[in-house]
Structure formats: structure tokens, C-alpha cells
Amino acid sequence: MHYKQELTAVGSAALDTIETPHGKVEDVLGGSVFYIGAAAGLFAPTNIVAVVGDDFPFDEIEFLRERNVNFDGLETAMGDTFRWSGRYHKNMNIRDTLSTELGVFAGFEPKLPFGAAEAKYLLLANIHPELQLDVLEQMEEPRLVAFDTMNLWIETAREQVLELIKKVDLVIINDEEITLLTGEISPFAGASKIIKMGPRYVVVKKGEHGSVLISRDDPPFLCPAFPLAEAKDPTGAGDTFAGAMMGYLAATDDLGDFNMRRSIIYGTITASFTVEDFSIERLKQITSDDIEERVRVFRTMVEF
Ligand code: AMP
User: Fold this and answer.
1) Helices 175-182 and 187-197, interaxial angle, to 10°?
2) C or N terminus of the chain, fewer CB within 10 Å?
3) Model pLDDT, residue 2
4) What's the domain count of the chain?
């Protein structure tokens, strides 16, 4: 069997209502899989696996087809699309979830379509860990499995989160979640606890303070965030980061230390576009050239 240099991603498909100090939008495209598709598709063919209701505005995701994104794993079920609503504080690192309505997610049983199971790269994006496990079991022989989660699942489905961590290669987690999961304040101490459970890599995201890659076999890598004059909406930055990072790895198929580092840079730069506007508005407009140009500027800022 010849496994494909593609990414398969399972996650949420949502309609979001978001309020930030820069404005408010209602029922806009959200959920991890669309940020991931729009980001990863700029690098490698991407299969998304999720569920939407019969109220979903399919025309809004048409652009993803031209971006190498395959929707065969996007199931349409009778009922309402998952809806999430959140409000950001003046300090946009802090947000409150105002409501979560599961809709068709409540009965979702992910089925990998023909082709998606043979992808070499798998991203288990933020959804209930039971669904993530289900997808992992359907994969043929992925080369790299990445796992993302959120505080909700660490608090309510801790055992399943821990079971998954033992089975994956890369854990992508933010600073608050790693403390919740491991009890450690320091990302280095928390990551070394996770690495002892099985994964080879941990990426700790620290919002506007950048991210850290901690590996079992290689020295740590520190990556600052790209400085932006004005961020409008941080929603989906983490999903964009994970999508671009995994898309870059799928495209290059190289897990060497320096390529892992480069994948973090591409994740960082792609996510910096997402926060410039609400939903996937900015991500929709950009091309690979925009990313390369910003990578070039970024390089000048970290060189010494
Ligand atoms: P992020 O800003 O990277 O945490 O991702 C934001 C996206 O996560 C939003 O578009 C939401 O629709 C989605 N989301 C919020 N809560 C959940 C949840 N409980 N399960 C899955 N996805 C969620």
C-alpha cells in the first residue's frame, strides 16, 4: 500500500456568533475543520471529516474545493448545525463561551470516506475525544498523528483524553490547557510529563506570546507570534496554526528537527492572517505567496 501525502482532519463544523472589542458577527462560518481546511489546503490535499445540519450554507465553503480540500467526509444530517457563541474581553486572550448548541453533533458517528483513511497525516482537532478515537481507529497507517483538545474535554472526559495522548505522536495544546492537564505551570515541565505518556512532540501555544516545540529527541524550539498592529478576532487561530503546521508537514513529508521547526513557523504565520478579520474572511483571501512574504518578514525579526 502506498500511503498518500495528504492530511485528514476531523473536528467541528459550526456557525459562530462572536463579539470582540472590534465588532460582532452572527452565524458565521466556524468550527475547527474550516479553519484547518482553509489553512492546510494552501499546502497539501486535505480531507475534512465533520457533520453539518440541513441549515448549513454550503456556498460559503465552495472556495475550499479550489484549495485542495475534499468534503466527502463532511456529512449532512437532518437538524441544526452545531452553534457556538463567545465574547472576548478587552484583553482578547480571555474569552467567555456564551452558548454551545450541539445540534447534529449529538448523534455524529464519523465515517472516513474512501481515500481519507490512507492519508499519511492525521489531525484530531478539537471535538469530543470519543469521536477522535473513533477516527484514529479507522485510519490505515498514518505517519504522524496530531491531537488538539480544549479545557471542556480535559475537565469532562479526562480518561479518554489521556487514552488518546498515549496513542498520538504530537500534542498541540495551549498554556491553560497544559496546566489543567498536567498540573504544571511551566510549559516545559508540562510537556515533559506528556512526553513520558508516549508522544514524541508537544507544541504549547501561548497566544500572542508565541509557541514552543518540545521534542523527545531534539532541543526545544521557541517561536514568537507575528506582531500585528490590530487583531480583530482570535477565534480559530489555534485551529489555523494546527492546520497549516500539519499541511506543511504533509506536503514536505519530512519529520527532521529543522522541518518540524519550519512547520511551526508556517503555523504561526498562517494563524496571524486568521486573527486579522472575523471568521475565515482573511484566510479565504490569502495565497501561498502572501504566506511566503510574511515568512520572509518574520525571518528578519528573529535573525541575530
Ligand atoms: P479556537 O479559537 O481555535 O479555540 O477555535 C474556535 C472554534 O472552535 C470556533 O469556531 C467554535 O465553533 C469551535 N468550538 C467551540 N466550542 C467547541 C466545542 N465544545 N467543541 C468543538 N468545537 C468547538
Assistant:
1) 60
2) C
3) 64
4) 1
